[in-house]
Amino acid sequence: MYNSKITGLGHYVPENVVTNNDLKEFMDTSDEWIQERTGIKERRWIDPKTEDTTAVMGVKAARIAIEKAGLTKDDIDFIVFATLSPDMYFPGGGVQVQEMLDMPTIGALDIRNQCSGFIYAMSVADQFIKTGMYKNVLVIGSENHSGGLDKSTRGRNVSVIFGDGAGAAVLSRSEEEGKGILSSHLHSEGKHAKELALLGPSTGKWVPEILEKNDPDDVSYFPYMNGQFVFKHAVTRFSEAIIEGLAANNLQKEDISMLIPHQANLRIAQFIQKKFQLSDDKVFNNIQKYGNTTAASVIIALTEAFEEGKIKDNDLVVLAAFGSGFTWGSVIIRW
Ligand code: ACO
Fold first, then answer.
1. Which of 9, 15, 77, 329 could form a disulfide with 186 if both were Cys (CB 3.0 to 4.6 A apart)?
2. Based on the domain organization, do 30 and 146 belong to the same domain?
């Protein structure tokens, strides 16, 4: 059996920086509240006057990842695209990438697993490579949250957290033993689906009903989050996913060189860091400048950590995420 390893990484965030103080123009909030509860100082929100969309940002990140892998778009065998904010209700973002990058008619798959989206996407790509079916898989996580948030005081508990951006990785076939993706671990618990969800645009509320009601107070078109409930589950499930990944490879927490947690809330990441007794140089966070970019968060953080020289050959890198679904998981990588 083959192994898969990351051969190229790339990320893209919109230029438009929105600070916590900028948000005060639309809602009753404060820099102090946001920083104290989440660690976020600013986020990127797409300027609607620009060309950026979920697919366009994904393509920008993908171009960099393919180039860094030393490949061309024609070397890619399959696309896996993770997002909760596709440009269209259907089809998904993967086919847009295939078209925008002018690729051959390769397969393109969309992953709908929200904050765990990139973990799921990497796991899917890894399986295709391990079985020998594909050689190079392009994995993208991209989100345009700003287009769908309630930016009034009514939606402030959710909207201050989320940011836009994209990241991409090329996973390639490798025959090096014990290197690359060692294992991935995926979980779900659908009974909590409505604790963090966007209920409006669905077949449960279909177009004729929307047109008929035209109700400006219908908040089901904005994301809903039971924040404290989600927080409590996040800290438990993050830890479980990391422990499971380490145990599967006969590793201990002391073996971790770099933990990249999904950037949901700096307080969650700090809780996990303390629990696993990891020093500051072994956990990478960038939520301070990007907020929570959902399916893009882990891959943007991984790319930045790598570019900043914080990940070296042979390091044990642990990726972990938790989010809406609930879904959660981890990926264990020997770099
Ligand atoms: N500015 C000022 N005040 C605010 C804001 C804001 N932006 N938002 C809420 N408040 C107020 C509330 O109105 C409330 O006031 P009250 O006590 O007078 O009623 C108070 O602050 C506390 O509100 P909570 O919603 O209870 O705030 P909480 O302490 O839970 O923090 C937060 C909210 C940051 C969202 C936190 O719950 C959290 O991080 N949860 C987990 C998020 C997460 O992990 N998500 C998973 C990934 S996301 C995905 O999968 C898509």
1. 329
2. yes
The residue type found at 3 is N
Q: What is the C-alpha separation between 254 and 235, in angstroms, rounded? A: 19
Sign, CA torsion 288/293/299/304: negative
Q: Which residues pair with 225 in a beta bridge?
A: 196
Quick one: 184 and 294 in the same domain? yes
**Ligand 1 binding pocket includes 156 (Cβ within 6 Å):** yes
Domain end point (choices 135, 158, 174): 174
How many separate domains does the chain show?
Answer: 2
Across the chain, mean pLDDT equals: 96
Q: Ligand 1 atom 20: the closest Cα is on which residue?
A: 157
DSSP state of 330: E
Residues 199, 130 share a domain: no
E strand or H helix at 241, and its extent?
Answer: helix 227-248
Ligand 1 geometric centre to CA of 161 (Å)? 9
Please give the pLDDT value at position 122: 98
**Orientation angle between helical segments 54-68 and 93-100, nearest 10 degrees:** 60
- Prediction pTM value: 0.96
- CATH code, domain carrying 142: 3.40.47.10
- Do 66 and 148 belong together in one domain? yes
Q: Which of 251, 284, 253, 255 is CA-nearest to residue 270?
A: 284
Domain span at residue 185? 180-334
CA of residue 227 to ligand 1 center, whole Å: 5
Is ligand 1 within 6 A of the CB of residue 323? yes
* pLDDT per residue as tens digits for the range 271-311: 999 999 999 999 999 999 999 999 999 999 999 999 999 99
Spatial distance between the Cα atoms of 67 and 73, rounded to a whole number of angstroms: 9
